[in-house]
Amino acid sequence: MDAMPEFMGYDRAIVTFSPDGRLFQVEYAREAVKRGTTSIGVVFKDGVVLAAIRHIPPLGITNSGSDKVHQIDDHLGTATSGFLADGRVLIDNARVKAQVFKLTYDDPINVVGSVKDISDRMQLFTQYGGVRPYGVALLIGGVDENGPQLFEIDPSSTYYGWKAQAIGRGANEALKVLRKSWKENMTEDEGIKLILQAMRAAEKDAKPNEVEIAIVKENEFRKPHGDDAVKIVKKFW
């Protein structure tokens, strides 16, 4: 008990480091992500598959604003885990930045450029008083001149590139499947099959109609809805 007062003050202000160099508010934001439902991204030969679980409560309406997989641009998409409202604000900002870039340079923003824009905004909320870090992590998938790419941005604003990655409460179980079965030059169907196998391992109680899935290819973002989405999921579920 004597140790508690020593550290109590360090979790009240985002701008204060603890004596051992930690920002507790950022760590708490990471815990919010760990409590969120699972989101997964997988790179295949021509693009990226993104998937997420969105539980539908009794009497709930599907596609009512609580989606976890979103389009940023024709060649860019994202899946989130954590606080959906925080993710929505970041995604809206990323969409604006992508359109501004296209209007300014007459070219679509590249994948890393969009990732940096999002992570720069998140970083600001780790160093100023009166705000809190975004309690969300994002998987950004897209295709540009460098081919298909997948990035993860965590609440600290650090980003990493991956061939396949999972975030959220079922990440550890999903990663076991991804590490075992991911391979180079997979087809689109193989990528979808793998991401759904990983999702089943991560979210054992999920139903096919609770899976959001999107395929991102060069100048093509495709997210099936309703019966079309369920049909694709059931094919590999």
Name given to the CATH architecture: 4-Layer Sandwich
Distance between the termini: 49 Å
Identify the CATH homologous superfamily: Aminohydrolase, N-terminal nucleophile (Ntn) domain
Structural domain tally: 1
How helix-rich are the residues, as a percent range?
A: 25-40%
Shape: globular
The SS-based structural class is alpha+beta
State the total count of DSSP E strands: 10
Major β-sheet annotation: 5 strands, antiparallel
Describe this structure in words.
α3 crosses α4 (111-124). The mean pLDDT is 92. The protein has a single domain, classed as 4-Layer Sandwich (Glutamine Phosphoribosylpyrophosphate, subunit 1, domain 1), CATH 3.60.20. It has 7 helices and 10 strands. The protein is α+β, with helices and mostly antiparallel strands. The protein is globular and about 50 Å long.
Brief write-up:
Helix content is 38%, strand content 24%. The protein has 237 residues and is of the alpha+beta class. The chain has one domain: Glutamine Phosphoribosylpyrophosphate, subunit 1, domain 1, CATH 3.60.20.10.
Tell me the layout of helices and strands.
Elements: H1 4-8, H2 24-34, E1 39-43, E2 47-53, E3 69-73, E4 76-82, H3 84-105, H4 111-124, E5 136-144, E6 147-153, E7 159-162, E8 164-167, H5 171-181, H6 188-202, E9 211-217, E10 220-222, H7 226-236
Antiparallel strand pairs: 1-2, 1-8, 2-9, 3-4, 4-5, 5-6, 6-7, 9-10
What attributes characterize this protein structure?
237 residues; single chain; alpha+beta; 5-stranded antiparallel sheet; 7 helices; globular; Glutamine Phosphoribosylpyrophosphate, subunit 1, domain 1
